[in-house]
Design goal:
alpha+beta; 3 domains; 3-stranded mixed beta sheet; elongated; disordered C terminus
């Protein structure tokens, strides 16, 4: 029985050993297959580059790099991107490959990668996305990918080409546009204030209309006080309308100056962008002041016109006639 028990333990140990070795062997086989596929894709990519077919070569090299990243593949892929006109992608990959070459102890390849990256810096295109400062919950995407809030307002290197910029926010109508970035250019695009969804706009209009009935509520003040409040409200309304008119003219002037610095809008330089932002801010102030002024003026007129007429003063008269004395009067 002792011998039989020892045999059982021996078999169990061998099973454990095989169970531990099997995953390692499977993992090694998987890595070997990835390397073989990466090598084949690399060779195909190199042949396509030699034939000048960079559009087909770059995806092959990118797939090879994804399967088995290497300094040589990275250099070839960056070179392919540069020849395809994707300057930002090439620049970023040359810098990444330079760091990989340093870690791999390959100073010559590191030097080449850094030199290529430095040469591309002068050819980079940049795109700046500017969001409205009033909108904190707005989500902005570039070709469907969300732009991090920290990147908003920064000039980011991008490959030349067309980009779809979209913006959305709760309770707002979505907005999108297409911007073209030329080689070695700097483009700035301003995202406008998003419009309210129809139901939100109707709700705000209803809230403004609700102000007038409250001004004419049953618990109205006495006639003289009511008229005084009406005068003050009307005066404030006129003042607010004047402010709205001033900022409206300022917005129009700023917008005219902004468009003169854009080619065309929204492709603006720094001065054009600053003037466009100023026009948007002035327009917002003008809208708010005009709406508030209209409400105050209307409310003041309602208070004045609906105030009850002032009671006639008590009148008395003493009439003296032959043989009689009469007292006449009107009392309320």
């Amino acid at each position: 029985m002792t011998t039989f028990g020892a045999g059982k333990w021996t078999i169990a140990l061998w099973c454990c050993a095989l169970a531990c070795i099997a995953p390692d062997r499977a993992s090694a086989q998987g890595r070997d297959r990835d390397k073989a596929a990466a090598e084949a894709l690399f060779d195909e990519g190199r042949k396509l580059m030699a034939a000048g077919n960079y559009a087909a070569a770059c995806p092959k090299l990118a797939a090879s790099q994804a399967l088995d990243a290497g300094v040589g593949t990275g250099l070839n892929l960056a070179d392919c991107y540069e020849k395809l006109g994707k300057t930002a992608s090439a620049w970023a990959l040359f810098r990444e490959t330079a760091a990989a070459a340093r870690n791999a102890g390959s100073p010559e390849r590191e030097r080449v990668a850094r030199q290529r990256a430095e040469a591309l810096e002068r050819q980079l295109s940049h795109l700046t996305i500017v969001a409205p400062t009033e909108a904190e919950t707005i989500a902005i995407t570039r070709d469907g990918a969300r732009i991090d809030a920290a990147a908003i307002g920064s000039a980011l290197p991008v490959d030349p080409g067309d980009y779809t910029i979209a913006a959305s926010a709760p309770g707002k109508l979505p907005w999108s546009t297409t911007v073209r970035v030329a080689p070695a250019s700097r483009v700035s695009l301003s995202v406008p204030l998003l419009e309210d969804e129809p139901q939100i706009a109707e709700q705000r209009t209803s809230e403004l209309k609700a102000i007038e009935p409250r001004l004419t509520a049953a618990s109205a003040p006495p006639s003289n006080t009511r008229k005084l409040i009406g005068i003050i409200s009307s005066g404030a309304g006129v003042a607010a309308l004047a402010v709205g008119g001033y900022f409206g003219l300022r917005a129009a002037s700023a917008w005219s100056d902004a468009t003169a610095n854009c080619d065309p809008y929204p492709y603006c330089g720094e001065d054009g962008q600053r003037l466009a932002n100023d026009a948007q801010r002035s327009g917002t102030v003008a809208t708010i002041a005009t709406v508030a002024g209209g409400v105050l003026l209307a409310g003041g007129l309602v208070l004045w016109l609906t105030a009850p007429g002032q009671a006639r003063q008590n009148e008395t008269a003493l009439l003296v006639g032959p043989g009689s004395v009469q007292l006449r009067g009107t009392f309320q």
